[in-house]
Specification:
Layout: E1 2-17, E2 22-30, E3 35-45, H1 50-53, H2 58-75, E4 87-94, H3 98-103, E5 118-121, E6 128-131
Antiparallel strand pairs: 1-2, 1-4, 2-3, 5-6
Length: about 160
Amino acid sequence: MRSECEIGRIRKVQFGVEDHGVLGLCIDFDFGGSVQGYGWFMLAPMADNERTREGWSDAQLARNLRKIVELHNFLDVDELSEAKGMAIEVLRERMPNPMVYKHGAGPEGAKCKTCRHVVQIRPGQNRYWKCDRRSLSHSQTSDHRLKWPACRLYEEEK
């Protein structure tokens, strides 16, 4: 994975319970058509299941609270929601497929478009692609691109 600095506009600041039942903060940056999320800074497990609470520590909570305070001070706003539309320099990750980074490359020439793990989500008239082997979320940052090179978990669609 390579990273480089690029100017991005804050598209959305989310503070709430994410889809695994954990309270946290996430910021989405728009880079002129593509989006990258920054966060989730988890604050507390909200779900009552043990899997969500497993491994949670006061040190982790304190570290994430410090990150949120540092972010708030850096943006120099009274409320984080005021940061929407602000342009700032961001260290942007350049990774064509996060699954390749995590699991390794798939078959030569194979694309996610032909993998059975890519599913289409259709809320209303919009259409989004997600990989069912990734953590699914309602954020644009977990959208999956059909043109990406396939990962090692690739299974041809039947």
